[in-house]
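Here is one chain, start to finish.
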Amino acid sequence: MRNGNFVFVGGSQGVGKATALAAAGHGASILLIARNLVSGEAAVDEMKIAGAASADFVSADLSTISGMNAAAEAIIGWRPQIHGLMHSAMSAFSTKVVTSDWPGVGVCASIYGARSDQP
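Its structure:
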């Protein structure tokens, strides 16, 4: 993992953060993507203390297409090569949620998957 570039979507808390910390401990460069600015910046500090070669944070809400695009652009601009990506971000709702720019999460996921194949 040393000298590797790893992206953790949902990496500011929970299993994503724990996995990112383990990679950081091996000297990896870490990019965290999450919604919460405060927990994201705090997690970056923890990555650096754990031994990350570098650690960066991007605030992005993947429940919207604009947020997915922001995350994708951040990943593309972060490093020329990515050695791994872990997606552990999630939200659970008891009712239907309509995002600000699209009526369905399933459709958003399909569009995001298609976008990930873009050069």
